[in-house]
Amino acid sequence: MFIDTHLHLEKRWLKDDTNRQFAIDDINKNKIITWAVTSDIQSYKETIEYAKQSKYIFASFGVLPWYAHEYVDRFDEIAKLCEEAIMLGEIGLDEKYAKDKACIPHQKPMLEIFLKEAEKNNKIMNLHFRGKERESFEIIKSYKIKKPIFHGYSGEIDLMKEINDLGYYYSIGRRYNEEKLLEIPDDLLLLEIDVLPTEDFKVPSEVFSDMLERHAKVRNITLEELEAINQKNVLRLIGDDPNLNEMKKLIQG
Ligand SMILES: [Zn+2]
User: How far is the CA of 8 from the centre of ligand 1 (A)?
Assistant: First the structure.
């Protein structure tokens, strides 16, 4: 079974409504469990609507660090949405790709709202860190969270040993570094599409198949073995979370 732990269906990343419909239809047809991460309050609300079109799509609430300054006055609302959400992300720290530097001082306080909720209710958390991975790791570590996922990990290879020791997860997509992919233990690896290609649009099942093939080759295992690794890790993350019971049933058939 295909399980995509990080996909953007929202208008911000998937502008074409027709393509979005193709993607949702494809997810239904191929029964792809999809964690639809979001980038702000608007895209979360949007994604909750898309999720109504598919029992395989599960919306996750996040606000990308680049938009932190736009939400300073709405941190209470963010905390409430975190509490309501079944999963968190994507959320994180990113000064490197911040177009408007005004977001920088507000990134950490915003991330901490999510971390508190993840800690309190043991929620899955899709994390976006670009640059300052060490510092980000130290912040994460200071909270008692069990289900953080480093999405598209871009830090040093040395830091991975410490991340592995703590049992934090990684989600790897179409763009990856072979050396780092090999550094991830089987029980911490997750697969993700992230953003569907817009120029030469492809539906999730095609993107996922292609990705599986390339990752399996790097790890020198079969496609089935890689799918099983991903599935097993997703089930471990779901655990006995009552909010994710439907998802668990779909995976276990
Ligand atoms: Zn993303």
Answer: 6
Query: 204 C-alpha vs ligand 1 centroid, how far in Å?
Result: 14
Strands across the sheet containing 125-130: 88-94, 125-130, 148-151, 169-172, 189-191
Q: What angle do CA 127, 129, 131 make, to 5 degrees?
A: 170
For residue 141, report the distance from its CA to the centre of ligand 1, in Å: 22
Number of domains in the chain: 1
If we measure between CA atoms, which residue out of 11, 13, 34 comes closest to residue 24?
34
Question: For position 177, which CATH number holds?
Answer: 3.20.20.140
Question: Ligand 1 mean position to 43 CA, how many Å?
Answer: 12
Express each pLDDT in 102-156 by its tens digit: 999 999 999 999 999 999 999 999 999 999 899 999 999 999 999 999 999 999 9
**Tens digits of residue pLDDT in 157-195:** 999 999 999 999 999 999 999 999 999 999 999 999 999
Separation of CA 72 and ligand 1 centre (Å): 21
Give residue 228's domain range.
3-252
Residue 91 bridge partners (DSSP): 127
CA-closest candidate to residue 56, choices 20, 5, 122, 118:
5
pLDDT at 199: 87
